[in-house]
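Our consortium's second objective concerns turning raw sequence data into structural hypotheses that experimental partners can test. To show how far this objective has progressed, the report includes one record in full. It was chosen at random from the queue rather than selected for favorable results. The single chain below, 114 residues long, was entered without modification.
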Amino acid sequence: MSMAWKSRVGLLAAVAVVLTIGAWQRASADDLVHIVKGVVKSVDKDTKTMVVKTDDGTEHTIKWTDKTTIEGVKDSSKGIEEGTKVSVKYTEKGGEKTAVGVKAAGKATAKAVD
């Protein structure tokens, strides 16, 4: 193999790697974000999940991570509590919902959680 041929193969391989990495990063950046609004029915701090019940009765189990932002909570060390009205922005992969951000609107009435 000539030196020019090896250089071309090396250059093509490098371009392929860059394009693959770029496509992978775009896929992560383009994750579709969903929003659900409702009342927090339960919180499990051990598994870092919460169940949000919407007005139509649908229950959404959503996990949170250290990257999840939380707004509207007086004591952020306690996190979101049961009975809190929330708006949750989340992504979904493989059927698992992960909160990107949670915005609390205050305590709901007991009827909304039943």
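The partners drew two points from this record. The first helix runs from residue 3 to 29. The chain has two domains: 1-30, 34-113. Both points have been shared with the crystallography group to help prioritize constructs.
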